[in-house]
UniProtKB/TrEMBL annotation:
Homodimer. It catalyses: Hydrolysis of terminal, non-reducing beta-D-mannose residues in beta-D-mannosides. Residues 793-843 form the Beta-mannosidase Ig-fold domain. It is found in: Secreted. This is Beta-mannosidase B. It holds the Pfam family Ig_mannosidase. Pathway: Glycan metabolism; N-glycan degradation. Residues 33-212 form the Beta-mannosidase-like galactose-binding domain. The keyword rRNA processing does not apply. Residues 227-329 form the Glycoside hydrolase family 2 immunoglobulin-like beta-sandwich domain. Residues 699-779 form the Mannosidase Ig/CBM-like domain. It comes from the Bacteria. Keywords: Glycoprotein, Glycosidase, Hydrolase, Secreted.
């Protein structure tokens, strides 16, 4: 290989930064009184000032307000670098910023290279002519929303939505401060993450700066511009597949006799090779593979990945090389007629129907540039351990880092990928916005199209839903129609032609449901916000509720006939240990100023109406943590079980939300410190490939079995109804044989509802997790004292086992740790009388104290 022909990448990381009043010329940075601070790159100004000790952490206490000044300043980044060595005639030298956040001007050696206003696509500048032996690079980040005024389409939509919800609003009311983000009518005009300006789950801490890597890239004129490895067909029975490999090059290379050589190597080491001529700006070849090792989600098989190497050859010289890892798999969206009417919304992986079990992914911090790859991997591993086979990357955040998608590929987790548009009408008659949307889509599709995990490209979050609510129609117009129904689908067809494009989430096209079909129950996906918000969001089931609490209660899920539930959730607190790290001890009381500052939903006591029914109202911070965790865990358990019983009429549930952008009181299953909540474990059990669940209706107790796997399941289920006093009311043994992708009643009996009893089902062979049904709300249960006996056994430098037993029924039995990275094989589970459970504990700090592991339950403490 001729080394001088190969692409070379020289990272630039050693930046310093300072700030000035806005709209200053570059000469201002020469002022001797300016203070320059080492910059975190990739990262942002908040991370940099934090590292320098110049600001307090914006997540702690009420410090969010103390950093508001930062979004109104110009921020200057500066570095110097030497010219790349050994340049040869014909080399191209390009300065590549993989992510600039967001409004920025760039100078090299005093010459302005250009201007950029999109954090979602790179800024690239050819710099051959400007290079000297030593080079000075200067960037100016302007205030992200400078120069913008509220977008008329967004304001008009927001005003109509507000008036529909609150008819008595005055005509002159300023609606621009309403909604999930007060700046949304302005921010929708700039290609920056809209959650930057605050949302109902996070603070207003808008990231600014160099948030992705910077490189000086030296390439020969002959280089690979892009590649796509696409599975055209796959037969898992015969182990064969047809795969198309396409590469994109400079059209000027046509006719020069160049070739591309492809090496595709399976996990077991079998290599397939092919050579193709370069006779145009693109070239492709088809590989017929045998002994294929398919990529599956982790619950259906192995997420096998092939190594790809593509070499661009000029005679015997290798001009350029790209490497990748891909999965051999096919994925489609089945929208055929559903058994109960309407149409299915069912993902089909390698020919097998998938019940999507997962959650909505948010950025792992508002400071998006400094999230380390280890955090993405840690969270993806938690998703896999929680039984999840899909995450939806939400459209109000960011296109995630490569490390996120690599972890999804490796862990066998599908990705529903939104484009980054959310919750406002977009002025699609703005030619610059359309151009940015097109360039952004092309870049992101080409970047991610080879990922085995990408299951769907989705136009936006809730834009059609809100537009329809405001105008009762979705006709073409200046609200984003051009973006979501022309620009984005055309980009997907061009750059990832075998992929599925979906116009928005939610979206549906069932005519009889009228304009609410977009969030209806007969077609497409829906956001089930009847629960928690308490209004009919499209389920149309028509119940009447006497109280606000009943209208917000998770029992409403039982009336939802949706095809695919892409958002649903209930608020809860993180563990007390997490709150203690981010709220001062003096403020650790319910509804203290600092406590309420960490809850961005409104009103701050919104969940009280639900708690009043489920647990009663909390009087202490400890009760608040426990009670909200109970309502969330019980709600997620109830909802997931209901939706899975409807398989295949319902084919997916994605909980809102998986993770947190900061340490707040939110809908997340895993808090900002990566501590799973009780609901994470409840969802994990409900997300097992096979589950048993109870329904009690009109005096009959029924046991359902649900199988979302590829194989028939044959097992026994032990059913019992017992009293909390230990008395046995009923016992039975059920033999079950269940087809794959099916759900049905396998047992039923007349049982009177009583708060004093509960139903229990267990699997002696471990085919499904134990499960139970309470016949009353938790506050009305006569739970016993719940005295537990436990022992901790150290099994390694960072691991232990905790054995727990009880003579009485204990509810939400748990092990807690003061170390936020600690992982438990299970937690927050019910323990029937006489049962013994052993919990494996890992990722403890080296030399941990066994006394750090504390055992307790909702109704009692350990001894």
């Amino acid at each position: 290989m001729n080394a001088q022909l190969a692409t070379r990448r020289i990272p630039l990381t050693d930046f310093v930064l300072t700030h000035t009043d806005p709209a200053q010329s570059p000469e201002v940075v020469e002022a001797p009184d300016l203070v320059w601070t080492p910059a975190v790159v990739p990262g942002g100004v908040h991370e940099s000032l934090l590292a320098a000790g110049a600001i307090e952490h914006p997540y702690y206490d009420q410090n969010e307000a103390s950093v508001r000044w930062m979004e109104d300043r110009d921020w200057w980044y500066r570095t110097t670098f030497r010219a790349p060595a050994d340049l040869t005639p014909g080399d191209e030298v390009v300065l590549v910023f993989h992510g600039l956040d967001t409004v920025v001007d760039v100078w090299l050696n005093g010459t302005k290279l250009g201007h950029h206003e999109n954090m979602f696509r790179p800024a690239e500048f050819r710099i051959d002519a400007e290079l000297g032996p030593e080079n000075d690079l200067l960037l100016r980040f302007s205030p992200p929303l400078a120069g913008l005024t509220p977008s008329p389409p967004a304001v008009a939509q927001l005003r109509r939505v507000a008036r529909a919800l609150m008819p008595d609003l005055p005509d002159d009311l300023d609606v621009t401060a309403m909604g999930p983000s007060p700046e949304l009518t302005i921010a929708s005009q700039r290609r920056k993450a809209v959650f930057s300006w605050g949302w109902d789950f996070g603070p207003r801490v808008p990231s600014i700066g160099i948030w992705r890597p910077v490189e000086v890239v030296v390439t020969p004129r002959a280089k690979i511009l892009g590649h796509h490895v696409r599975t055209d067909s796959l037969d898992t029975k015969t182990g064969t597949a047809d795969v198309t490999v396409r590469i994109e090059v400079d059209p000027a290379l046509a006719g020069r006799g160049m070739t591309a050589e492809i090496h595709l190597t399976s996990p077991s080491g079998r290599t397939h090779r092919s050579t193709m001529p370069i006779d145009a700006g693109e070239a492709e070849t088809r590989l017929s593979l045998t002994e294929v090792e398919p990529w599956w989600t982790h619950d259906l098989g192995r997420p096998s990945l092939y190594d790809v190497r593509i070499e661009l050859l000029d005679s015997s010289d290798v001009c350029d090389v790209v490497t990748d890892r891909v999965g051999i798999r096919t994925i489609a969206l089945n929208r055929s007629p559903a058994p109960d009417g309407g149409r299915l919304f069912q993902f089909v992986l390698n020919g097998a129907p998938v019940f999507a079990r997962g959650a909505n992914w948010l950025p792992a911090s508002t400071m998006v540039g400094s999230v380390p790859p280890e955090r993405h991997r840690q969270l993806l591993e938690l998703a896999r351990a929680g039984g999840m086979n899909m995450l939806r990357v939400w459209g109000g955040g960011i296109y995630e880092a490569d490390a996120f998608y690599a972890a999804a590929d490796e862990n066998g987790v599908l990705i529903w990928q939104d484009f980054m548009f959310a919750c406002a009408d977009y002025a699609s008659d703005d030619p610059e916005l359309l151009r940015e949307a097109q360039l952004e889509a092309e870049y992101q599709i080409r970047r991610l199209r080879n990922r085995a995990s990408i299951a769907l490209w989705c136009g936006n979050n809730e834009i059609q839903l809100l537009h329809g609510f405001a105008y009762q129609e979705y006709e073409p117009g200046n609200w984003g129609w051009e973006i979501f129904h022309r620009v984005l689908p055309e980009a997907v067809r061009t750059w990832d032609p075998s992929a599925t494009y979906w116009p928005g989430s939610p979206w549906g096209e069932d005519t009889p449901e009228g304009f609410m079909a977009v969030n209806g129950v007969l077609d497409g996906d829906r956001h089930a916000w009847e629960v928690w918000h308490g209004f009919d969001a499209g389920a149309g089931s028509g119940e009447h509720y006497e109280t606000v609490g009943e209208a917000r209660h998770f029992r409403r899920y039982a009336h939802d006939r949706g095809r695919f539930i892409s958002e649903f959730g209930i608020h809860s607190s993180p563990e007390l240990s997490t709150l203690s790290r981010w709220i001062p001890a003096s403020e650790l009381t319910v509804h203290s100023p600092s406590f309420d500052a960490h809850n961005k939903d409104h009103p701050k006591d919104k969940g009280d109406a639900l708690l009043e029914i489920v647990t009663g109202l909390p009087e202490t911070i400890e009760q608040y943590v426990d009670f909200t965790m109970v309502s969330q865990a019980e709600g997620m358990k109830f909802g997931i079980e209901h939706y899975r019983r409807r398989q295949p009429n319902c084919s997916g549930t994605l909980v809102w939300q998986f993770n947190d952008v900061w340490p707040g009181i939110t809908w997340s299953l895993i808090d900002y410190d990566t501590v799973p909540k009780a609901a994470y474990y409840a969802a994990a059990r409900a997300y097992s490939p096979v589950i048993a669940s109870f329904v009690h209706h009109e005096g009959t107790l029924s046991l359902w079995m649900t199988n979302s796997g590829l194989d028939r399941v044959t097992t026994n289920a032990a059913v019992a109804v017992r009293g909390f006093d230990g008395a046995t009311v009923l016992e039975d043994e059920v033999s079950v044989s269940l087809e794959p992708s099916s759900s049905r009643v396998v047992w039923s009996a007349p049982v009177s509802a009583s708060a004093h009893t509960y139903a229990w089902v267990g699997s002696g062979g471990g085919a499904f997790p134990d499960n139970r049904l309470f016949f009353a709300d938790v506050k009305d249960l006569p739970l016993p004292a719940g005295n537990l006996r436990s022992t901790v056994t150290v099994t390694g430098e960072t691991s232990a086992e905790v054995s727990i037993e009880s003579d009485e029924f204990t509810y939400l039995t748990r092990v807690t740790s003061p170390h936020p990275g600690t992982r438990f094989s299970d937690n927050y589970f019910d323990l029937p009388p006489g049962a013994v459970r052993t919990i494996r504990v890992t990722d403890l700090p080296a030399g941990f104290d066994p006394a750090d592991l504390v055992v307790g339950s909702y109704n009692g403490a350990a001894r």
